[in-house]
Each structure stands twice: as structure tokens, then as C-alpha cells.
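C-alpha cells please, single chain.
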Amino acid sequence: MKPIPGAVEIASGTHWIGALDPGLREFDIILKTANGTTYNSYCVRGENGVAIIDTVKASHAEEFFHRLEQVARYDEISTIVLNHLEPDHSGALPELMRRAPQAKLYISAKAQLMLKALVKTDGLDFNIVQTGDSVDLGGRTLRFFSTPFLHWPDTQCTLVEEQDILFSGDVFGCHFCDSRLFNDQVGDFRFSFEYYYQHIMRPFREHVLEALELLEPLPLKLIAPAHGPILRDAAQSYVRRYRQLASPLLHNEVGADNKSLLVFYISSYGNTVLMARAVAEGAEAVSGVRVSLYDLQAMGDLPFVDLIEEADGIAFGSPTINGDAVKPVWDMLSSLAVIKVRDKFGAAFGSYGWSGEAINMIEDRLRGLKLRVPIKGVRARLIPTGEELDKCRDLGKQLAQHLTGTLDRRVISMSELLAQEQSHA
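Here you go.
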């Protein structure tokens, strides 16, 4: 059996004691991990005690304890910090607490709701910390920063003030396993870094920006994430890259006073494209709305995710084939799970031959993604008539008016409401 490599010093008195998982090829179902991953845990030694920052996945606990025992005794451990309670970070916690029962556990306020369910240990004592709280190890001060929803509600970061080391949890991490550990020694992991951001952090972009307000002012010399390479070379460049990735881009193209509406369509026989053009025409008649028309058959979904994230409204046109919307539309809708689309306006339209279910199905999916769908979609059997194209123009116009807040609000009197109730009784 190949010997387990030892603990690695990343700064004076601070060691990496994590675990390597080079054979992993899929993480949490949604991420491909061509280079495996690491479960990073750290040991910080102070004059008055030792702190363990995060643990590892339960299946890799043996590696973790092997490395821990190389740099500390269990009776020296005074502090355990969990920046995040996902099982790949908390898996070895129960056994660590058994071996070091005197240690105090520090977690965020939101983590306490998940602690018992994830760790399955009764009577576990813990301390709640928030931004600004600290723990003194003697010559080493751990200061906490609350960074919720990066990417769970419980996430936080921990700073060693005297060394300007940030234990960042999942932030600034990636799934990339290389036993050389440090970013200036491992292979090229840029793709993994960006891929991780896009799939893990991007849906929480607003929270990323809030976290950066806390972390950017710190004079960081080293960032020690929970996954992937330890960032000791040009550490702050990775913080700046997060700022770039999280910053809106479309405002450079669409003025602050304008709203953006994207109209996507796919058309089998040229009928749905006629409807898409009519929707766009109707929307363009409203001042202050910039409309873009895209054929999904020609492009696929990936190029449009950035545009959708910045847009104010989205309309989808699809024919109904075999009682369903067509696959490129579902692929596009599926891609929206990694970005924030809540409260955007949405609509659907399309041509059909027999039953026309696609429109309702798209609308249901839009509502499931938390978009607002204020206007009933337009369906046309085969070739749309002039009247049906007018309905498409009206759909586009009303959608644009919702975007700009210029839709006429009809005032209904109490007598009308009573009359409606009586007519439905």
C-alpha cells in the first residue's frame, strides 16, 4: 500500500491536514471533476492552543487523522471551526470531537439548524459566531466573517489576523486535485476555478458581491480554500477575479434607463418564427425597451446564459411536437438553474398542429424558476393568422409595458367585483 503523504506547512505554525481524492469524477451530481478534488483541512497552532479549521469527507477521515497527529496532540486542540457543514467538510467531525472532547466548536448562526441533521451526534456543544467575532489562540487570532449562501446558508470565512491567511471555505476554491497543493506549483487549474464559480457560486452572485465587500479590504497573503489549490501566489488576484465574474456586464450595452427583453424561438416550419418576430415588434413599440431576437436552433443555450442573467424579461417560442416543447427550449430552461432569474418577467408562445401543450408547459417551468408570467401565452394552429400575429404583438407590447412599469392599470369597482362573483356562483 502506498504510504499516505504527511501534513504540509503552509505558513509558520499552520499546516494543511486535508485529504486527496484524485479518482473523483463527479461531485454532487452536477459537477464533473476531471482532476478529482481535495478536502482541505487546516491546523493552526497558537501559544495557548491548537485550532482545526474544517474536517474532511468521512470516507477520507483516516488520511485526515494521520496528518493531524503529525502536527498536534488531541489534548492540545482547543478550537474547531467549521466554515461550512456540508458532509465533505464535516464528515470527520464526530470522531474528532470524540478524540478531543475539550475542544470548543465554532459555527455560524445558520449552521446550528443543520448541525444535528448532518453530524447525527446528540448533545454536541457549539458556539455561534458572526462577523467581527474572534478566538484568541495566543499569538494567533481567528476572526470570523459571515458569508451566507456561498453556497449554503451557513457559510463563513475565518482569518488568521497575524498571518493574513484566509480560510475561505468554498469561496475561491475549485475541484482540482494535485498533491503539490500550492497554486504556483500545481498544474493549470484556471478552467477548474472558473467552472467551479459558474456552477457553485454564480447562482448566488448578489451574495458573492456582499462577501467581497468584507474580504476585498483584507491584505491577504494566502487564501486557503476548502477545495483545490492553496492560493499563496498573488492571492488577491483571485479576489479580483471573483469581482470580475460577479459584476454585471450588460449595463455597458443597455443604458440604465432601458429594459432588456430577449425573445428566443425555435421553429420547425417557419410558423413560430413569424410569431417571435411579431412579439418583438410589439415590444419594440414601447419606449425604453431594447429587444433581442435569437434562434435557439442555430446557437444552443450556452452563449445566452450571461445575457439572460442581465436581462429584465424573457419570452420563449416553441412548437408543440409529440405533446411537448422541443428539446433546445428545455435545455435552455434547464441552464437557468445556475443563474438568478427570480422576479424577471417571462412569457411563452408557439405554433402547434394538434394540441399545443408546449405553451403551458413552458409557462409552468418559468413560474417554477420564480419568474413572473403576467400574460397568457399565445398559441396558433399551424400558420398563424393575422389576428393571431396581432395577439403576439399585443403579448410583446404588454410584456414590455410590465418591464417599464407603464402598463395601464384597470380600476375595478366593487359593484363589478360583486357582479363577477355572482356570475361564477
